[in-house]
Amino acid sequence: MNTEQLKIPQATAKRLPLYYRFLKNLHSSGKQRVSSAELSEAVKVDSATIRRDFSYFGALGKKGYGYNVNYLLSFFRKTLDQDEVTKVALIGVGNLGTAFLNYNFIKNNNTKIEFAFDVEKAKVGTNVREVPIYHLDDLEDKITGEISVAILTVPASVAQQITDRLVKSGIKGILNFTPARINVPDHIRIHHIDLAVELQSLIYFLKNYPQEP
Fold it and tell me: Distance between CA 102 and CA 96 in Å, rounded?
């Protein structure tokens, strides 16, 4: 994502893929223009926030007209580097890892799990949806400069150890699905996704902040 030079807030940067996905759907349906109100209803982000997000990139729309769908789609495709394929490594082929391999971002042709790693002999040397599974011992040999992102779906007890190996191998970003809070150097970007915590948070909000029907 080419947003560093634009100095936009991280919260805005995280919303850009959401906007891009909706714009792709609009384009597929043949819609030519969209208002911030329509965007707001679709992506569940208030109109003021959308207008502020877009304002960081200059004049993307016109008052009274809204936004040109084709122009926005082209703009965000370039901003999000969607013209280049991002190759990803998956570490850990358990239930969650296997689900990732079966899915393999099929709705996003610009992100692809290139290969996976595990330690279970029955899995090593096999393929899931044409993605080869290698032994974890081969990690340093297989991860080269063309792989910059890794998805971590391993037991928490080995997460830090494997992360250290990934960093030494040149990985720049890690999507961590383990409950471990991993330490990485400042130049590495890591996003923690703890499904149990997210579920507990959802249940808490349901109980304590009920929405009006």
Answer: 10
